[in-house]
Specification:
The protein has about 140 residues and is an alpha/beta fold. It has 4 helices and 5 strands; from the N terminus they run E-H-E-H-E-H-E-H-E. Strands 3-2-1-4-5 form a 5-stranded parallel β-sheet, sandwiched between helices. Strand 4, helix 4 and strand 5 form a beta-alpha-beta unit.
Length: about 140
């Protein structure tokens, strides 16, 4: 049913993504699909890495560790954004297209009052992509 699963990750908060990471791994094993871990970064130094190359190295190591831990094929895809906080949905939409995934498994936040004003990243993504999306409440 699925051949490539995109799993967006925030390396600064990887410890809070365990449910989504497990779900992506379970779906991967069930369908024999590759998981592409997508990270969005800017060209400016940040809390995770000093530059996109260092970020890519860390994301690749993360993907390899997830693949080894869960027993599935894994790869990394870095998406560069001028401002990840503002461009997250646009960056993830572009990553869906570039990776050719047919399922997105991503973590969500606990809904609150502001969700009536600003929709979630998963909600915005679901409005615009043709692939299936699983939003996992953390």
């Amino acid at each position: 049913m699925f051949s490539k699963i995109m799993c967006p990750v925030d390396l600064a908060h990887a410890d809070k993504l365990q449910k989504a990471l497990q779900c992506a791994a379970d779906q991967s094993r069930m369908y024999g699909a590759e998981v592409v871990y997508v990270g969005v970064t800017s060209t400016s130094p940040g809390s995770v890495a000093h530059n996109p190359q260092e970020f890519g190295d860390k994301l690749t190591a993360f993907a390899a560790a997830q693949g080894a831990a869960h027993g599935h094929a894994a790869s990394a895809h870095v998406q560069i954004s001028h401002d990840p906080g503002v461009d997250m949905e646009r960056s993830l939409l572009k990553a869906v297209s570039e990776t050719g995934c047919d399922l997105v498994v991503m973590a969500s936040h606990v809904p609150n009052v502001l969700d009536h004003i600003w929709p979630s990243n998963g909600g915005k993504l679901a409005e615009h992509v043709k692939c299936s999306i699983m939003v996992i409440r953390s």
